[in-house]
Amino acid sequence: MNVFILASLIEPGVGLIFWTTITFVLLLFLLGKFAWKPILSAIKTREEDIDKALKSAENALRDMRELKAANEVILNEARAERDGILKEARETREAMVAEAKQKAQAEADRIMGSARDQIQNEKNAAVAELKNQVAVLSIEIAEKILKSELSNDDKQKALVNTLVKDINVN
Amino acid sequence: MTGSIAAIGAGLAVIGAGIGIGQIGGHAMDAIARQPEATSKIQTAMIIAAALVEGVALFGVVVALMSK
Amino acid sequence: MASKISTFKPFSSRIFTVFALFIALTARISAQDHNEHHEATVVNDSIGAVDSMAVTTAAPMDAAASHHEAKEEAVDITKVAFEHILDSHSWHLWGEGHDAVAIPLPVIVKGDNGFTFFMSSAFHHDVHGMNVVEVNGDRFVNFEEKIYLASEVANEHGQFLTFNQEGEVANAAALDLSITKNVTQMFISVIVLVLLFSSIAKSYKSHGVTSAPRGKQSFFEPLIVFVRDDIAKGNIGPKYEKFVPYLLTVFFMILINNVFGLIPIGANLTGNIAFTLVLSVCTLIITNINGNGAYWHHILLPPAPKWLYPILIPIEVVGIFTKPFALMIRLFANITAGHIIVISLVGLIFVFKTIYISPVSVAFALFIDVLECLVAFLQAYIFTMLTALFIGSAVAEHHHEEAHGHTAEHH
What we know:
Largest sheet of chain C: 3 strands, antiparallel
Order of helices and strands of chain A: HHH
Strand content of chain C: 5-15%
Strand order of the largest sheet of chain C: 4-3-8
Number of helices of chain A: 3
Helix content of chain C: 55-70%
Order of helices and strands of chain C: HHHHEEEEEEEEHHHHHHHH
Number of strands of chain C: 8
Oligomer: heterotrimer
Distance between the termini of chain A: 195 Å
Largest sheet of chain A: none
Structural class of chain C: mainly alpha
Radius of gyration of chain A: 66 Å
Radius of gyration of chain C: 26 Å
């Protein structure tokens, strides 16, 4: 009995071959037309969409990067400009300060000079005044002394003597 | 009696396939251990090779079955 | 491959576990059914023999009964296993002999008077050639699920058949185009596939391609993409697009029938050589009608010295056929072997005639069933991938002249 069973295990049945051929070809046709075609095209479309989206995202990223780079350049320029302006301003300020200082110095020097001249003049005037005063005072003192010295005869005589003595020597 | 001889034939076919698939599996393990990043490729190749070896063994089994 | 599959791994593994448990349980239940009906069978079968004799006036009753009793002394696991694996004219659900519950299927056979049609229930579950069905002037008997033209009188076992010296049936076999169990399952699987994938296609249309896949779509889309990218694109090359529908159809047809075959009452379609024969012949045809100049050049003018041609050309020509032949045998033998192992493990209970062996049987059968779930995928994958590989080798643009020149220089 096993002989029959084994034979029918290996031996393909005509009926099943017949039906399988018909069914499989039909299945291939049906699925090919109603399932695989729309599914594969849908998957493909989606993949293309995703690709497109990815590419556009990449493009956007690149654009953004470019924009960022451009911004950077502009920013750098602005920074450089700002630095330039600041530097210029500083220089101007320094120049102004220096000029002001110089002017102030010159003014001060001038004021000092004129003050010194005035002081000199004042001093000279004061010295002259003093000299005059001293001369007057000296004359007065000398007068007073002379008056007191020459108040008595003895002293006059003595003086004459001395004076005469001096003359004699000469 | 012929049945038992067929069984011996099938057994011999299975020994061969066992050795073959064992070698494939073992070497695939080696390869995966060496290069874990290529695991999926190695697995695919391993399955194909194992299927081919197994196919030969199944031929043996079928021939054993056919010799009634 | 692993990376693709791992994306839906948790989901599929859960399904597999549930599925495997279901298989194990139903296998146990059907095994118990066999057990219960075992004692009753002897009696019933002899009654069956009486029935058929009443209709056809045949050999002595005790001869038929003794013939059956000899068969039923022990449960023949091989017989049970092969009954499950082979095609049959009715869809057997459970029970044995006349208690058997089976869905009758149409029988379409061609006798001497052309094609006739009747339901398989007309045979009254007889597979020993004892019950003659007379339709349209032709007389048919079913012997081991093959339909023969019945002899005029029964032999000493009550069979309307004559056997030759080697014990083979000498009666003429009827051309049998019946809608058998396997054909029925094939129709069911085709209906399931068409409904499933056309509904998926519809959901692509209705939800558009911009939304994420949902439901069935999200389960099958990775598989479809896997077949398209890893199998078709990887093995065929730039001209893959034309072959994707064929590869997808083959893949899902084999997969669904592998899975149906794992269900205990399901038919073993992918483990039937006729089915795998048709698929591999399709592969053979598609490969060869798409073979380009380089492919035929390689076969008819192989890159070898001229004096080797008488040996090489026949080898190459035979090689055209051995590759699909290997596909046929591989799928058939893998699935059949898996089923035999599961049934044999359950059969251990009847071989040892004790219920205490059942935990071992069930544990091993469960293990093998889980393995078979993997094999169901793997064999569908391997069949499809090797088909793609063959097509790829036929359509690839070889740089053949170069290789030829090099080998010629070496010699």
